[in-house]
Amino acid sequence: MVIKKIKNLSVKKAPKIIGTRNESSLHRTLKFQYAGPGGITEAEVGEYVTDGVRKNGEYIEIQTGSFAPLVKKINEFTKHGKVRIIHPIAVKKIIEVYDQQKKLLYRRKSPAKGSSWGIFDALLFAPHLPLVKGVIIEITMVEIIEKRIKDGKGSWRRNGISIYDKELAAIQETIILKKPKDYLKFIPFNKNEEFTTAALAKKAGIKINIARKALYVLAKMNVVNRIGKKSNAWVYKL
Predict the structure, then answer these.
(1) 139-182: per-residue pLDDT in tens?
(2) For the segment 28-61, what is each residue's pLDDT rounded down to a tens digit?
């Protein structure tokens, strides 16, 4: 078992089963890539398990969904060092459908395309996480292959077809967010301009519900201020 001493904290390789059950290929690939040379993966840190620890002592967490489940863990890790949360967002998806014997039936390109604005879905129930000292959030814009199996056990929306794996095909871009001011790139307004949710949606070219989530998170982070109402719409300023 590998045991390392990082900033007076014992970090040891976790038993293989911990943290890897139901792990997708996408998650596993990013975990090893971000841990990097000299780092370790699936490490026990106190009562928690982290996806990885880099050689420089930085903790790595790969999180595809909401950040809410990470809050307690991240608050503990930041007592001992920096934490980098990697949030992959699929900007291109190829869907492969297999039969129950894992024979490929067909493949197609998904019309769904993610964008960096997806970070606000992840932060919606953990809007204060970017304010925690030592937390770095890295949005990773990826191309993926989603593998599905025609087993009759999946969602009715997919006619019973189950998703059984997601693989990384390519990384297009990464966006690193270290400080609250880094989130200003999402707001295409000047310092003294007033704007509404609808105005943000129009100028940024996003849907109104995405603009609403973004402004909720950014207001919690004090990146924008809600200053009043115009008719029935809230008005914001940087």
Answers:
(1) 999 999 999 999 988 888 888 999 999 999 999 999 999 999 99
(2) 999 999 999 999 999 998 899 999 999 999 999 9
Q: Are residues 100 and 147 in the same domain?
A: yes
Domain assignment of residue 216, given as a range: 182-238
Task: Encode 1-58 in three state secondary structure.
Answer: CCEEEECCEEEEECCCCCCCCCCCHHHHHHHHHHHCCCCEEEEEECCEEEEEECCCCC
Q: Is residue 42 within 8 Å of 59, Cβ to Cβ?
A: no
- Note whether 107 and 44 are same-domain residues: yes
Phi, psi (degrees; rounded to nearest 5) at 33:
-65, -45
Residues 72 and 171 in one domain: yes
The pTM score is 0.90
One domain for residues 98 and 213: no
Average pLDDT, the chain: 92
| Torsion 10-74-238-177 (CA) sign | positive
What is the distance between the alpha carbons of residues 110 and 11, in angstroms, rounded to a whole number? 41
Assign residue 193 the CATH number of its domain. Answer: 1.10.10.10
